[in-house]
C-alpha cells in the first residue's frame, strides 16, 4: 500500500523522492524557511515564474526578491510537513507543504507577532534541464486566480504582477544581503 499524506482537501498518495529530487526540495524549502541561498536559486531557470495568491514574480531576479523579502515580514517560518505526491514525475514535482509563519511584531521591543499555518499545494514545473520553469503555490489547495478566471481574475493577476514589481524594487536579489 502506498504511503499517504493529508492536506486541507483530503488524502494523497506519496512517494519517496530519489536523492536528486530530495536535494532540490530541501534547497527550495530553505527559501520558505527564511534562509535564501544561491544553491536554492540555482534550481530555477532565468525565465522562471513564481505564482502564489500574493504575487506573480516573472524572472529569477523577481523570484529572488520575493523570497529574500520574507525575513522582513516574518520572524520565523518553519516547515511542519513536506511530502512529495505520487503524481510527481520528471516534468513536475507536486508537494503537500505545511508551513508555519510567525509575523514580526508591530509592537516595539516585541519580536514575534501573529502566527499563521498554511497548507499548500506546491508544484514545481521542470524544464528539460531539470530547472524550475514555474513554481506555483496554492494556499489551502485553492487554485490561484488568473486572467482565465474572467474579469476578477484579470484584476487579481494585474495586482499580483504589480505587487511583485514593488517588492523587486525594494528588496535585493543577493541572498547575502538579506
How would you describe the overall organization of this protein?
Helix content is 30%, strand content 37%. It has four helices and eight strands. A hairpin with a 4-residue loop joins β3 and β4. It starts with a strand and ends in an 8-residue tail after the last helix. The model has no long low-confidence stretch (mean pLDDT 89).
List the helices and strands and how they pair.
Layout (H helix, E strand, L loop, with lengths): L3 E4 L2 E4 L5 H14 L5 H4 L2 E8 L4 E3 L1 H14 E11 L7 E13 L7 E15 L5 E8 L10 H21 L8
Parallel strand pairs: 3-8
Antiparallel strand pairs: 1-2, 3-4, 5-6, 6-7, 7-8
Helix pairs in contact: 3-4
- Low-pLDDT windows of residues: none
**Distance between the terminal alpha carbons, to the nearest Å?**
44 Å
Which structural class do the helices and strands define? alpha+beta
What is the ordering of alpha helices and beta strands?
A: EEHHEEHEEEEH
Overall body shape: globular
% residues in beta strands: 35-45%
Oligomer: single chain
What integer value in Å does the Rg equal?
Answer: 16 Å
Count of helices? 4
Mean pLDDT: 89
Largest sheet: 6 strands, mixed
Q: What's the helical proportion of residues?
A: 25-40%
Strand order of the largest sheet: 4-3-8-7-6-5
Question: What's the β-strand tally?
Answer: 8
